[in-house]
User: Fold DNA repair protein SWI5 homolog from Nannospalax galili.
Amino acid sequence: KSEQADGASEEPLNVSIQKLKERRDMLDSEIARLMSAGYNVRELEGHITLLHEYNDIKDVGQMLLGRLAVIRGVTSKELYPEFGLDMDD
Assistant:
């Protein structure tokens, strides 16, 4: 009986391992594609760091805009023109 239970618990683990291997292979292929396009790991890491910084700053801006909207009793969307923001910003 315990052999059946062990076999049953190993199956989902094997599926998870296989999915991780497929993900690794996909990422390796993407890295190879980017490197063949002229990118290097250091450059990509720098871009990723800058994107994280940008997103953090944007999040703070959105938070401040939201708080100002609450204080003024309007929606954040209504404040966008006042600050020269596009809805895609």
About this structure: Residues 2 and 8 are 10 Å apart (CA to CA).
